[in-house]
């Protein structure tokens, strides 16, 4: 399956994440090859859908910041490898630039971000993020969800950069932001951290981490649906 490239590749032996990608390949494909992404790749995307995605994802990213900060705190408390914090901190630091990028894109597209309300799929996703910030959620579960959130975007938008794609020129910057090799390397680093934690995790934590992984995929699909105007 093509949806196993990029973020799914490279971990030694594949680890638990590769096992889950094989086990749940159908829903993973639905999340990473959604009609919103395929229409972007084919050059047929409705620009009103893109604008809806832009305004809603801006809201999501602002809620994503405290979640990533909570993962960093969990890494500080639970990780035995200091390099974990360095990878997560790099992701947290990049979010300030990401928020600035959304504001610039909104201005370019005439999208008003102030006063924009999150739609239901966005609200549900943000509530899920908030639940992962609880002190009762282990670092292993949180880092797995963090990897999955980033990996879905990398896998999705990289599809729009492949040879033969007809992605509109005005959307290339968006696709390159998350579909680039450099973002792919970052996702790979997160995957390695998650696999390392999962390798040592007891069964009940593995179960919770797999549930979190599937929840991310379900929320991503609903977010794409919302962007496409599917209620």
UniProtKB/TrEMBL annotation:
Enzyme Commission number(s): 3.5.99.2
A UniProt-annotated Pfam family: TENA_THI-4
Keywords annotated in UniProt: Disulfide bond, Hydrolase, Thiamine biosynthesis
Domain named Thiaminase-2/PQQC: residues: 23-227
Keyword Hydrolase part of the UniProt annotation: yes
GO cellular component assignments: cytosol
Protein name: aminopyrimidine aminohydrolase
Organism expressing this protein natively: Nelumbo nucifera
UniProt lineage: Eukaryota, Viridiplantae, Streptophyta, Embryophyta, Tracheophyta
